[in-house]
Amino acid sequence: MDTVLEPQPLKELDEWDDFVATRYKQGKSEEEFRNYKEDANPTVTEFYRQNHKYQTLDFVLKKKAEYCGLTRGKKSIWEMAEYLNTLVDDSDPDTDLTQIEHLLQTSEAIRKDGHPRWFVLTGLVHDLGKVLCLCGEPQWAVVGDTFPVGCAWSDQIVFPEFFANNPDSKVPEYQTKYGIYEPNCGLDKVHLSWGHDEYIYTVTRNYLPESAHYMLRYHSFYAAHRHGAYRHLMNSHDEEMFEWVRKFNPYDLYSKGRERPNMKEIKPYYDDLVAEFFPEKIDW
Ligand SMILES: [Fe+2]
Ligand SMILES: [Fe+2]
Known about the structure:
45% of the residues lie in helices and 1% in strands. By secondary structure, it is mostly helical. It has a two-stranded antiparallel sheet. The two termini are 28 Å apart. The structure holds fe (ii) ion (2 copies).
């Protein structure tokens, strides 16, 4: 399969985030939610078609081998944030938030609610894994709802019909309820579709508490944290820790409408916060 020939459907990565935010708009009923396809414009739909087609177990293992050894060089959190910001160079600055602004809006909302410092910091770094896009990864391998590979797909994943084009649909072993996994083996043993969640979790795991690991690693795993799917692969520890994933999610989804962060004013606070948990440079 030649993924290189597929055009990048999203005008910018945020189109996917915006779709998810619309899907889970506050006050929406379960019935309204089920009409999510009405919220998806053709580019978002095409994005999911590609994502569901190409995210195979093989692909995920390949990307983990490629990125999770963290051999791409040392950079500070701020350097990576600045680098990520180059993603939206050409967007209209009046309507679109930069990547750093989304991160700061998320972390500021967490801070205003009086949460611990590590939680605020988790908000600040949660989307830095999107730099994968600048490493040449296609959009479908950076963003999108994540889901386990190597076992049957839940019908709680959006656009499940697109999985028919995934080569794993022809592998009987991957199409059973547990697939290659043991019942309740724990999510740490389960491979999720590759994207910015797993990457930022891997980069930051030595510096943040376990609750932050869960927030970072599973923040796009909507089938599980929003719809309760895949509990047969989770163990009791996962169940407990998913409280944190659910606590984090509203800040990611709903902080966008808030006022633009005043970088000059809040930068000293965040300089201290980053320095409290991270060394000057970390491996990416
Ligand atoms: Fe994200
Ligand atoms: Fe986000």
